């Protein structure tokens, strides 16, 4: 006689109760992203090193959200300084 956990071919099947459902996975992923976006990133932006970097960008009129998508002349000295480190 075959148990309920085995298929006719004899392979062991995983019970659906042990696998997280699709909606539960979605909730976990969205929650993780929300915690990173709303807690971790703001905390990181307030750290002294990051705050200094953001202030330097602000003084030079650089929008950090655009600095990877545009060619900015103001970035050249910053990149040279970072390369010297």
From TrEMBL:
Residues 1-20 are annotated as: Disordered. Keywords: Membrane, Transmembrane, Transmembrane helix. Residues 1-19 have a biased composition (Polar residues). The chain crosses the membrane at residues 24-45. This is Uncharacterized protein.
